[in-house]
Design a protein that fits this description.
Structural class of chain B: mainly beta
Radius of gyration of chain A: 13 Å
Order of helices and strands of chain A: EEEEEEEEEEEE
Strand content of chain A: over 45%
Order of helices and strands of chain B: EEEEEEEEEEE
Distance between the termini of chain A: 41 Å
Largest sheet of chain B: 7 strands, mixed
Oligomer: heterodimer
Shape of chain A: globular
Shape of chain B: globular
Strand content of chain B: over 45%
Number of helices of chain A: 0
Number of strands of chain A: 12
Helix content of chain A: under 10%
Structural class of chain A: mainly beta
Number of strands of chain B: 11
């Protein structure tokens, strides 16, 4: 079965510094990978996805993610963090058996001024 | 923009009550989903539907049922609410896999408290 793991419950970074939120995956076959963000008391918002093609995927709000097949990782990155980036981030992988996504447990990002 | 709406943002119900959570999407998506979100557990799929009147069990269907009478509307039903169903409930929709797009679009969530 497809799965993703987010090894960090929380990531702390200072405003202006680069940020990385980690995600590793386990799939049989080619992975379809996604990142979502959730602001307080809101639903999830789609950030970006990897289906095929370039290993560096660009998404909304200046975020990007790097697909690494050998390390089975799909880390979310941003060159310069903003306080407004503070939120809960979820990694997800498509389940081939059904038209559904399997989500990680989430990583809380805190960006300090 | 895709819009997914949920009938209530906050809901308080008593143990044993029957609870209806409504979700409506306006993008003619074939697939619709219900999740619950709990701290430390992420999102867990309760039920999903890939067509009108069709439904599939997700990972945690016990204590829940669903209804999809129209393409745009997907309802989650708690037959007899219990305190362990206190949670955030999220609805989502997506195109069918044949259309080559797999991302899901989420509603704002319903925070349900069962007392």
């Amino acid at each position: 079965a497809q799965s993703v793991a987010q090894p960090e419950d929380q990531v702390n970074v200072a405003e202006g510094n680069p940020l990385t939120v980690k995600c590793t995956y386990s799939v049989s076959g080619n992975p379809y990978l996604f990142w979502y963000v959730q602001y307080p008391n809101r639903g999830l918002q789609f950030l970006l996805k990897y289906i095929t093609g370039d290993n560096l995927v660009k998404g909304s709000y200046g975020f990007e993610a790097e697909f690494n097949k050998s390390q089975t990782s799909f880390h979310l990155k941003k060159p310069s963090a903003l306080v407004s980036d503070s939120a809960l981030y979820f990694c997800a992988v498509r389940d081939y058996s059904f038209q559904k996504l399997v989500f990680g447990t989430g990583t809380r990002l805190l960006v300090s001024p | 923009d895709v819009k997914v709406t949920q009938s209530s943002r906050y809901l308080v119900k008593r143990t044993g009550e029957k609870v209806f959570l409504e979700c409506v999407q306006d993008m003619d998506h074939e697939n619709m989903f219900w999740y619950r979100q709990d701290p430390g557990l992420g999102l867990r799929l309760i039920y999903f539907s890939y067509d009108v009147k069709m439904k599939e069990k997700g990972d945690i269907p016990e204590g829940y049922s669903v209804s999809r009478e129209k393409k745009e509307r997907f309802s989650l039903i708690l037959e007899s609410a219990s305190t362990n169903q206190t949670s955030m409930y999220l609805c989502a929709s997506s195109r069918s896999a044949g259309q080559g797009s797999y991302e899901q679009y989420f509603g704002p969530g319903t925070r349900l408290t069962v007392t």
